[in-house]
Write a structure and sequence with these properties.
Number of helices: 12
CATH superfamily: YgfB uncharacterised protein family PF03695
Largest sheet: 2 strands, antiparallel
CATH topology: Four Helix Bundle (Hemerythrin (Met), subunit A)
Order of helices and strands: HHHHHEEHHHHHHH
CATH class: Mainly Alpha
Radius of gyration: 18 Å
Oligomer: single chain
Strand content: under 5%
C-alpha cells in the first residue's frame, strides 16, 4: 500500500519527476527540483498558502493546469497525492526538525566530482515567494537578510544570471553557493518564524477527491467537470 504520510522515497521522487517532465504536461510545468524549491518557500514563508491557490502554479499557471490530461483517476490521485504529501512533509519537517532539511537537487559530473545544480531549485523558490510577494517584501527590503536571500535570487532570477555573466568570479563560487543553500533556507525559516506562529496545522493525509468536490488541480470547478470528466481521463 502506498503511504500517505512521511517523505517521498527516492523511487517516488523519480516517478514524480518523470511525470512532471513528460510530454503529457505543458512546457511550463515545474520539474522535481523546481517543485521542491517552490514548496520550500511556501513552507517557510510568512503565510500559509492553500493548495487550491498554489497547485495551478505547478503546471505553469491556472490555464496550463486545466490542460493536464490524466490517463486515469488513479494516476491523478497518485500524482496529486505525492505532491501534497511532499508539501505536508516539508511543513512537518520545518516545524519539528528544520535543521534536517536537504533540498532536492539535480547534479552533474564535473572534473570527476558530483556538482549540485541549484538554478532550478532557486527558480522554484522565487516563484513561491512571488505567489505571496507583498508578504515577502519586508524581507526583500531588509539589508540584514541579504546575505542568505542573495544566493537564491542570484540563481533564481534573470537579473541574477545577468550579474553572474558580467562577473565570472561569482559563477566560480557555484559549489560554495550550493553548499550554503540549506543554511540560507534555515535563516529564512527563522526570519519568518514569528509570522508562522499562528499557522493552522495542515492535514497530512493525501486527499480523496469526490466527484462533487473541487478539483485538486485548482481550476475552481468540480472534479467531475474537470480532471474527473470522462473526456479528460484518456
Amino acid at each position: 500500500m502506498t503511504p500517505t504520510t512521511g517523505p517521498l522515497t527516492d523511487e517516488e521522487l523519480d516517478e514524480l519527476d518523470e511525470f512532471l517532465m513528460s510530454d503529457a504536461l505543458p512546457d511550463e510545468t515545474m520539474d522535481i527540483a523546481m517543485l521542491d524549491g517552490f514548496l520550500t518557500a511556501l513552507a517557510i514563508g510568512p503565510n500559509l498558502i492553500e493548495p487550491s491557490r498554489w497547485l495551478p502554479e505547478v503546471w505553469g499557471g491556472r490555464q496550463a493546469g486545466e490542460e493536464v490530461a490524466w490517463e486515469s483517476t488513479e494516476q491523478a490521485t497518485r500524482i496529486m497525492g505525492m505532491i501534497l504529501r511532499h508539501w505536508n512533509f516539508l511543513l512537518a519537517q520545518f516545524q519539528a526538525e528544520p535543521e534536517a532539511y536537504e533540498p532536492v537537487l539535480y547534479a552533474r559530473e564535473e572534473g570527476g566530482k558530483e556538482v549540485s545544480i541549484i538554478d532550478e531549485w532557486c527558480i522554484g523558490f522565487v516563484r513561491g515567494m512571488n505567489l505571496d510577494g507583498e508578504a515577502w517584501q519586508p524581507m526583500m527590503d531588509d539589508e540584514e537578510a541579504e546575505d542568505y536571500l542573495w544566493p537564491i535570487m542570484l540563481y533564481g532570477t534573470e537579473t541574477g544570471w545577468e550579474e553572474m555573466e558580467q562577473n565570472p568570479a561569482l559563477a566560480a563560487k557555484h559549489a560554495d553557493f550550493a553548499d550554503a543553500l540549506p543554511d540560507c533556507v534555515l535563516a529564512i525559516h527563522d526570519y519568518w518564524a514569528p509570522e508562522r506562529a499562528s499557522r493552522t496545522t495542515v492535514r497530512k493525509d493525501a486527499p480523496k477527491v469526490g466527484r462533487n468536490d473541487l478539483c485538486p488541480c485548482g481550476s475552481g470547478r468540480k472534479y467531475k467537470k474537470c480532471c474527473g470528466a470522462p473526456d479528460r481521463l484518456n
